[in-house]
């Protein structure tokens, strides 16, 4: 038999003790390199799942046992045991692959199964419990992130599993093998840095009653797991939201002709029902508030019958005492026939909202009552405030009138005196007094305008002005004061400074006025080199139209401590009380300056140290006019003769630069012999040394201006200089130099004319014209023939006298009425070309006088007389009050001659320009 089989089948014949007695040639080849297997025990040739003794007990005729080759454990065979005769067992050896592929039909089924498994993205695995070996399909390895060629054993797979899932993996596999429980669970495993979820299934395969292997599949269920987690989170979030919002759900389904009701635990909790009460509609109806029950049940029944949405807000009684307020809404669903088949809805506990609304209503009622009370109090306070404001306005108007009345006399007299023939000293004193008086009026205007200050704002004006002229006015105001305090006052103007800019001159002057005043006030005469105050004016262009005026005011006075600098621009703030006692002042000046600078959009920077002086740098945005004013060329050539180079000091540089604006050429010479005498030349002689003073006795062949420094003035004797009264080198502004050169030009044209120093060239021209037309007669000598005759209503004798002189100077005669009553009588009895009236007078004031005159004109059909108000009131609205009462125009005290002339020129048939 063996001979017949030896060439075809691997067969062994063993004894009952499993020793090999015969073998075929095919079988021998399986055991290579073992040369002879005869008398070998099967255990020497194969690795059995059990020990030999146990294994032999399980063997019977036809038994199958899966074994591994001893020499190659990875090679597995299936041994078939057959009893041939007594004490001999026939053992057939078959490889596992051969065994499972003997049937062609089974092979085709296997291929189909393999393709199906791959297309389903399933990994196949097999674990041999006997040999502790495992098989993993290429798809299995791909699913867990390994290449198909990678080596993978069972222990490696377990180590790759997420550490929290490893115990579960081992435990469930053991339960499956030992107890036959279903092997189906999920575990996590990291794939390419990301945690994936896998579904693990398996089933054991037994040979000879015992489990030899476990086969199964692996599927990636990460997506499904994520969806479940998201669904769970959403459900949990919904539950939490429903609980937080106290929202319950309810539903009813129609079965036959009955409605089956149900609601969730949250809805049950809202109505404080027990678990067994869920779905009991009668108990829910019993919990409704008696006042709401009929309405709610009828609405619900109507919705169930009609299919309309159910929506009600109602109350429920809990335990016959507590009230719950709910909002319920339900949507009806229809069946295929369009009949209501179900209703689904929500119920929301709004008790807290209801309570809050009740409290809010109560609070609103209280607030409305309080608002009504406060409104009444406020209205009463407004009435009092308006009364106080009217009182304040009346007081300010009265004070304005009382203060402006004497100022009118001062400034008017100065205006008239300026038209008189005065020597140069008196003319200069007159100019200083006039500038100081006008500055006082400006300060008075700021003080009286309390409404602007109280509101924290002021209305800025915008008009052309000369920055140099403004600076010159400030210098003239403080020049004598600085000289008395032995303070050297110096000014330096940027050569690029325009002749004219656009802005609020009064406010800019007020700022610089205050800072310069403080600099001189707090100067110290015993400083090394003497007390000094320097004003530097710079011009910084920022564009086509907008630029900046920068004032840098330096002093070497007492300085300001750092802790005081922080609050220096706060009202009523000074360094310390001893400073106030020594130097005086209210502490308001810089506070007002700070507000004005902020209002203009500028800034101020302070640098100071105690005992070393202070530097204020003030930057103010300013507009340039579209057409720049050209310099007034007074001389073709100016000669500059100085014993010191003009670049040697700031004061000389300022003087030199100022002169360049008024000539076509400024020539520096060393001797009068270099002068070429013509009709359009003048000499600027600068003396800073005693030698220069002596040289000054040389007479110039052309008109000249002489400037001396402090030392030269001290060494000057009365006979040294006779041609011109010398002027100080500093402080001199561009405007002041223009004034001096203008006078020199007039002197050159008319040696006999001595017109004095004037405010500006336009005033000079006007005055020359005026003097040619009008003489300066006294009151008694005035010839009124050909003059305009007007009526003056004024109760103040000083103002009467002043205005009469001003009118006489303008060629106008007048009659005087001491009050409004006299003025009305005189108006009715005579014909006048104009009425000039004060607003505040006894008997009848100017406003009432105007109304009476207008009424008389209307009744008597008399032509309207021009009425011009002359008043000291300067509050906002005063001009409108004058015009509303029937007046034609308005002149504010102090009355200036030029302003009076301009106003009368509009209403009288006279040519004041001649």
TrEMBL record:
Assigned keywords, A-Z: Kinase, Phosphoprotein, Transferase, Two-component regulatory system
PAS domain boundaries: 109-180
Protein name in the entry: histidine kinase
SUPFAM superfamilies assigned to the protein according to its UniProt record, in alphabetical order: ATPase domain of HSP90 chaperone/DNA topoisomerase II/histidine kinase (SSF55874), CheY-like (SSF52172), Homodimeric domain of signal transducing histidine kinase (SSF47384), PYP-like sensor domain (PAS domain) (SSF55785)
SMART domains, A to Z: HATPase_c (SM00387), HisKA (SM00388), PAS (SM00091), REC (SM00448)
Keyword Phosphoprotein among UniProt keywords: yes
Entries under Gene3D superfamilies matching the protein: 1.10.287.130, 3.40.50.2300, Histidine kinase-like ATPase, C-terminal domain, PAS domain
Residue ranges of every copy of the Histidine kinase domain listed in the record: 398-624
Catalytic activity field: ATP + protein L-histidine = ADP + protein N-phospho-L-histidine
Domain named Response regulatory: residues: 789-908
């Amino acid at each position: 038999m063996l001979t017949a089989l030896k060439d075809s089948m691997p067969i062994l014949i063993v004894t009952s003790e499993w020793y090999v007695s015969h073998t075929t040639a095919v079988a021998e080849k399986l055991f290579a390199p073992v040369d002879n297997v005869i008398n070998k025990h099967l255990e020497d040739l194969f690795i059995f799942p059990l020990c030999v003794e146990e294994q032999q007990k399980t063997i019977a005729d036809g038994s199958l046992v899966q074994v591994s080759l001893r020499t190659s454990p990875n090679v597995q065979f299936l041994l078939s045991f057959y009893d041939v005769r007594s004490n001999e067992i026939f053992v057939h050896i078959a490889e596992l692959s051969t065994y499972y592929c003997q049937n062609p039909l089974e092979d085709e089924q296997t291929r189909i199964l393999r393709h199906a498994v791959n297309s389903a993205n399933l990994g196949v695995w097999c674990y041999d419990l006997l040999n502790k070996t495992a098989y993993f399909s290429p798809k299995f390895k791909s699913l867990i992130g390994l290449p198909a060629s990678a080596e993978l054993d069972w222990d490696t797979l377990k180590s790759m599993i997420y550490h929290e899932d490893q115990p579960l993996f081992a435990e469930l596999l053991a339960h499956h093998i030992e107890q036959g429980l279903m092997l189906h669970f999920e575990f996590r495993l990291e794939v390419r840095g990301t945690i994936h979820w896998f579904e693990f299934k398996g089933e054991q395969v037994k040979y000879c009653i015992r489990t030899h292997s476990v086969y199964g599949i692996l599927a990636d269920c990460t997506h499904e797991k994520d969806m479940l987690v998201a669904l769970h989170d959403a459900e949990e979030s919904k539950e939490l939201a429903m609980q937080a919002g106290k929202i319950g759900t309810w539903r009813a389904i129609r079965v036959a002709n009955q409605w089956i009701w149900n609601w969730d635990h949250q809805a049950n909790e809202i109505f404080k029902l027990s678990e067994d009460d869920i779905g009991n509609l009668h108990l829910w109806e019993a919990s409704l508030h008696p006042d709401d029950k009929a309405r709610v049940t009828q609405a619900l029944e109507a919705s169930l019958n009609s299919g309309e949405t159910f929506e009600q807000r109602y109350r429920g009684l809990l335990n016959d005492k507590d009230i719950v307020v709910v909002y319920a809404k339900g949507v009806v669903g229809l069946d295929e026939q369009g009949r209501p088949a179900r209703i689904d809805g929500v119920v929301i506990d709004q008790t807290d909202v209801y309570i809050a609304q009740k409290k809010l209503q109560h609070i609103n009622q209280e607030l409305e009552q309080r608002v009504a009370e406060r409104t009444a109090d406020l209205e009463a306070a407004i009435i009092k405030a308006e009364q106080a404001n009217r009182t304040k306005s009346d007081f300010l108007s009265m004070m304005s009138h009382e203060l402006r009345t004497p100022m009118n006399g001062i400034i008017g007299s100065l205006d008239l005196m300026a038209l008189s023939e005065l020597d140069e000293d008196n003319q200069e004193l007159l100019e200083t007094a006039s500038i100081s008086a006008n500055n006082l009026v400006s300060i008075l205007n700021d003080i009286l305008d309390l409404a602007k200050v109280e509101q924290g704002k002021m209305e800025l004006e915008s008009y052309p002005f000369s920055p140099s002229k403004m600076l010159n006015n400030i210098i003239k105001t403080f020049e004598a004061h600085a000289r008395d305090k032995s303070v050297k006052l110096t000014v330096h103007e940027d050569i690029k400074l325009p002749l004219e800019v656009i802005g609020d001159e009064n406010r800019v002057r007020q700022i610089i006025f205050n800072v310069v005043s403080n600099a001189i006030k707090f100067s110290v005469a015993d400083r090394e080199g003497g007390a000094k105050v320097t004003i530097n004016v710079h011009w910084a262009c920022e564009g086509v139209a907008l630029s900046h005026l920068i004032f840098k005011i330096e002093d070497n006075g007492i300085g300001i401590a750092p802790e005081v600098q922080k609050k220096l621009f706060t009202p009523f703030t000074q360094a310390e009380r001893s400073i106030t006692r020594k130097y005086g002042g209210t502490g308001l000046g810089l506070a007002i300056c700070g507000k004005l600078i902020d209002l203009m959009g500028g800034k101020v920077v302070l640098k100071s140290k105690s005992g070393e002086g202070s530097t204020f740098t003030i930057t103010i945005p300013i507009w340039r006019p579209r057409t720049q004013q050209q310099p007034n060329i007074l001389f073709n050539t100016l000669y500059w003769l100085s014993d010191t180079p003009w670049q040697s000091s700031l004061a000389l540089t300022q003087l030199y630069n100022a002169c360049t604006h008024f000539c076509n050429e400024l020539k520096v010479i060393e001797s009068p012999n270099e002068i070429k005498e013509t009709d359009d030349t003048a000499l600027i002689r600068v003396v800073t040394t005693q030698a220069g003073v002596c040289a000054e006795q040389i007479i110039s062949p052309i008109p000249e201006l002489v400037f001396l420094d402090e030392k030269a003035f001290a060494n000057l004797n009365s006979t040294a200089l006779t041609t011109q009264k010398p002027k100080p080198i500093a402080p001199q502004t561009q405007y002041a130099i223009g004034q001096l050169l203008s006078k020199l030009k007039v002197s050159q044209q008319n040696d006999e004319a001595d017109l004095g120093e004037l405010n500006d060239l336009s005033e000079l021209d006007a005055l020359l014209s005026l003097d040619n037309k009008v003489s300066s007669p006294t009151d008694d000598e005035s010839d009124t023939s050909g003059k305009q005759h007007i009526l003056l209503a004024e109760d103040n004798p000083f103002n009467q006298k002043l205005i009469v002189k001003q009118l006489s100077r303008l060629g106008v005669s007048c009659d005087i009425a001491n009050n409004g009553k006299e003025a009305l009588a005189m108006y009715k009895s005579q014909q006048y070309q104009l009425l000039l009236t004060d607003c505040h007078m006894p008997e009848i004031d100017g406003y009432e006088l105007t109304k009476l005159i207008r009424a008389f004109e209307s009744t008597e059909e008399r032509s309207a007389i021009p009425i011009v108000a002359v008043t000291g009131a300067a509050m906002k609205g005063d001009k409108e009050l004058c015009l509303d009462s029937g007046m034609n125009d308005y002149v504010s005290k102090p009355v200036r001659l030029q302003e009076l002339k301009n106003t009368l020129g509009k209403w009288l048939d006279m040519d004041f320009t001649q």
